[in-house]
UniProtKB/TrEMBL annotation:
<dbReference type="GO" id="GO:0003677">
    <property type="term" value="F:DNA binding"/>
</dbReference>
<dbReference type="Pfam" id="PF13545">
    <property type="entry name" value="HTH_Crp_2"/>
</dbReference>
<dbReference type="InterPro" id="IPR014710">
    <property type="entry name" value="RmlC-like_jellyroll"/>
</dbReference>
<protein>
    <submittedName>
        <fullName>cAMP-binding domain of CRP or a regulatory subunit of cAMP-dependent protein kinases</fullName>
    </submittedName>
</protein>
<keyword id="KW-0804">Transcription</keyword>
<dbReference type="InterPro" id="IPR036390">
    <property type="entry name" value="WH_DNA-bd_sf"/>
</dbReference>
<dbReference type="GO" id="GO:0016301">
    <property type="term" value="F:kinase activity"/>
</dbReference>
<feature type="domain" description="Cyclic nucleotide-binding">
    <location>
        <begin position="2"/>
        <end position="122"/>
    </location>
</feature>
<dbReference type="InterPro" id="IPR050397">
    <property type="entry name" value="Env_Response_Regulators"/>
</dbReference>
<dbReference type="InterPro" id="IPR036388">
    <property type="entry name" value="WH-like_DNA-bd_sf"/>
</dbReference>
<dbReference type="GO" id="GO:0005829">
    <property type="term" value="C:cytosol"/>
</dbReference>
<dbReference type="InterPro" id="IPR000595">
    <property type="entry name" value="cNMP-bd_dom"/>
</dbReference>
<keyword id="KW-0808">Transferase</keyword>
<keyword id="KW-0418">Kinase</keyword>
<dbReference type="GO" id="GO:0003700">
    <property type="term" value="F:DNA-binding transcription factor activity"/>
</dbReference>
<dbReference type="InterPro" id="IPR018490">
    <property type="entry name" value="cNMP-bd_dom_sf"/>
</dbReference>
<dbReference type="Pfam" id="PF00027">
    <property type="entry name" value="cNMP_binding"/>
</dbReference>
Amino acid sequence: MVLERLQQAARARLEAQASLRRFLRGEALLLRGDPGTSLMILKSGRAEISVTSAGGQKTILGVAEPEAILGDIACLDGGPRSADVFALEEASALVISRQEILRMLREDSESALLVIEALCEKARNASEMLEVKSLGSGAARLATCLLRLIEDGGGAAARDRVKVSQSWLGNYAGLTRENVNRQLRAWQSDGVAQVERGEIVILNHDALADIALEH
C-alpha cells in the first residue's frame, strides 16, 4: 500500500495537503480527457477503470481496490486523463494536487522510487490484461478475469465470491453477456462456479485455474 510504505514525514505531509472526497455508485472519479491536475488514492470501495470508443464500445482495463493510485500518469506528465474511473460502489478517495506530488518527488527520492514501482506494477497489469483478451478461448478469458478479481479483492470474504453483473464481467473479459451466462451455467454443472444472489461463487479454485491456462 503506497501511503503505508512512505516515510512517516512524507506521508503526514501528503495527508495534510489532501482532501477526502466521497463518491456514490456510478459516479465518476476521473474522466478521460480532463486535465491531470491531481492524483487520487482510493481509500474505500472499488472503482472501474475503462475507456470508451467513439462508437460507444467500452473496454474495461481493470478494477481499482483500496490504496490504488488513480490518475497518476496525467498527474505526472501534465497531460489529459487517459481513462475513465467510475465507482462500482460507494467509495472515497484522497485527492492530492499535482503541485504537491511533484514537490514531494523532487525532495524525497525514496518516495519517488515507490511511485515508480507502483507505475511499473500498473503497466505490468495492463500488459497482462491485453494478453488475456488475446486468448482464443472464451472460457480461459472468463476464468482468468474471475481469478484476477478474486486476487485483487483480497480478504477471506472475497476469496470465493465476485460481486459483479454478468454484463460487466463480459465487458471485462471481452465477451457478450450471453456467452458469460452460458459459460457460468456450464461451470455450475461441472461444479466449478455458480451464480448466487447476484454473486459469482467459485466452488473449485483449482479447476478454474486449470481452465485459465487453456488456450
